[in-house]
Write a structure and sequence with these properties.
Layout lengths: L5 H4 L15 E7 L3 H12 L6 E7 L6 H5 L5 E5 L5 H11 L4 E6 L3 E2 L4 H11 L5 E9 L5 E6 L10 H10 L8 E4 H7 L17 H11 L4 E12 L11 H20 L6 E3 L5 E6 L2 H18 L2 H4 L6
Parallel strand pairs: 1-2, 1-4, 2-3, 6-9
Antiparallel strand pairs: 4-8, 5-9, 6-7, 6-8, 10-11
Length: 317
């Protein structure tokens, strides 16, 4: 394994021409005073093998050298103004996106594989029932040196829509911004628009991606798991810290999941997988007995791992 991801060691291809015959892909990047990591992030985008990418960049009115770095990337569509939170920044940038498919990055992170977007788009183009493709993540340090494969630890390819759904239903899995590509029309039907966001200290505020996962999975949209290592996440001490609001927002997600899961287990609600247009996909029928089996197995696994209290503290079913 090299010290740094190959994609940021390569000479950047910022002058590569766009191929207008391909669907537009929008890469959304948010930033606040992370200029010292920004070049690696942007190089990981412009070095993608996919050749019809627009970069929508939402900057929270940075006071460091971020805007100077951005001058070297003229293809970036920049908007710089104060945001309520990182979630608000992602929501605002999403409203500016023109792509058929959307991918997301924080400016201190980046794409790991130069073929990640091309491979994800290929799956979405070929499989018209699928709304999202997910990948795995590696960790890098402040100098971009690889330090770990840490989430998920074992990411096997799975073409079953049940894999990610059950991860959400029984493990509290919520989307993180750097791990997936999604159809733009599906995201807009599930994500909260920017004008609905509240300040993070408000008790009713939500996390953009956890709220998205809540709506995506509860409505039955299909997500499949790629074996691709999609991205790298940077482990560093100067990350913008909104962590004091995350426990409450995570509790909101878990409360929804627990109640939703209870409805399924008790047979009060029937679950159907649906295509991007919201039409039932008959090939993926989900029966109550199967949900119970996976539920029991997950409880047993959590017990062995010692994680059950961490996942759903003080909650039943």
């Amino acid at each position: 394994m090299p010290n740094k991801p190959n994609i940021i060691q390569d000479r950047d291809r910022s002058g590569t021409k766009r191929n207008s015959s391909l669907p537009i892909v929008t890469v959304i990047i948010i930033n606040l005073n992370q200029g010292h990591y920004l070049r690696d992030c942007l190089n990981s985008v412009v070095n993608q093998s996919y050749q019809n990418i627009e970069i929508v960049f939402q900057d929270g009115n940075s006071s460091d050298n971020s805007k100077i770095i951005l001058n070297g990337f003229p293809q970036v569509m920049l908007n710089s103004e104060k945001d309520l939170s990182s979630s608000h920044a992602f929501a605002k940038a999403t409203g500016r996106a023109k792509g058929k498919y959307l991918f997301f990055l924080c400016s201190s992170d980046g794409f790991y594989s130069e073929n990640w977007i091309a491979n994800a788009v290929s799956i979405l183009e070929e499989m018209n029932t699928v709304s999202m493709v997910t990948g795995s993540v590696v960790g890098v340090d402040s100098e971009s040196n690889l330090i770990s494969y840490f989430w998920p630890e074992k990411n096997r390819k799975s073409l079953s829509p049940k894999t990610n759904f059950y991860s959400w239903l029984f493990d509290g899995f919520g989307f993180t911004p750097i791990t997936f590509g999604i159809r733009a029309d599906v995201l807009r039907s599930c994500a909260m628009p920017a004008d609905k966001f509240l300040p993070p200290e408000d008790d009713n505020s939500v996390d953009f991606f956890w709220n998205l996962s809540e709506n995506f999975f509860s409505r039955g949209f299909i997500s499949i798991r790629s074996e691709e290592v999609a991205s790298f996440v940077r482990i560093h001490t100067d990350r913008v810290d909104d962590s004091k609001y995350l426990p409450r927002q995570l509790s909101q997600l878990h409360s929804f999941i627990v109640n939703f899961r209870k409805e399924l287990l008790l047979g009060r609600r029937k679950y159907d997988f649906v295509n991007p247009e919201g039409q039932k996909v008959a090939a993926y029928e989900l029966k109550v007995i199967e949900i119970w089996i996976i539920y029991v197995l997950s409880k047993f696994r959590h017990l062995l791992d010692g994680k059950s209290k961490k996942i759903y503290p003080n909650r039943k079913i």
